[in-house]
């Protein structure tokens, strides 16, 4: 189904100016997510990168720290989805779940290193790196306790978030 060019501009505006997720922007304007993705890709091929515009606007409005905070907020929102998927996966063994969590914490450590030492992310980055090492240690030396580790990790993550996040 063909859409008026005004719809494409409205989706772009919601994504860039209102900072909505692309799925949310598409839904708001009654356009399929696939169509919004196609419009975004076509615009990028024509030199209009919606992500660059979105991030530039964030940078202009709130400075670098605000942009970093927005990126981190999105990262942790997606992380919640990842943990929910891991938790609900019935076909994964506890050791496989620990392995996936260790990979996630490795990503967090890399982000922390990229942001450098002078940011608010330092303490939580260190904490997550420590949890990654603990998860690896448990997986290698005490695999029978992997399930207990996973059970404890979620509520402990809330403590870390409260104290450092």
TrEMBL record:
This protein is called DUF1804 family protein
> Which organism is the protein's source?
Bowmanella dokdonensis
Q: Name one Pfam family in it.
A: DUF1804
InterPro entries the record matches:
Phage_D3112_Orf24
């Amino acid at each position: 189904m063909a859409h008026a060019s005004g719809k494409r501009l409205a989706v772009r505006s919601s994504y860039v100016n209102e900072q909505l997720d692309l799925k949310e922007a598409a839904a708001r304007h009654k356009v399929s997510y696939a169509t919004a993705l196609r419009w975004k890709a076509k615009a990028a091929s024509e030199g209009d990168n919606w992500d660059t515009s979105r991030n530039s606007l964030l940078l202009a409005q709130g400075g670098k720290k605000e942009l970093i905070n927005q990126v981190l907020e999105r990262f942790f929102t997606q992380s919640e989805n990842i943990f929910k998927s891991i938790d609900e996966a019935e076909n994964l063994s506890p050791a496989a779940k620990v392995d996936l969590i260790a990979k996630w914490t490795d990503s967090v450590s890399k982000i922390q290193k990229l942001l450098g030492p002078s940011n608010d992310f330092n303490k939580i980055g260190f904490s997550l790196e420590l949890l990654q090492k603990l998860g690896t240690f448990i997986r290698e030396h005490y695999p029978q306790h992997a399930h207990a580790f996973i059970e404890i990790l979620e509520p402990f993550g809330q403590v870390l978030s409260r104290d450092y996040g």
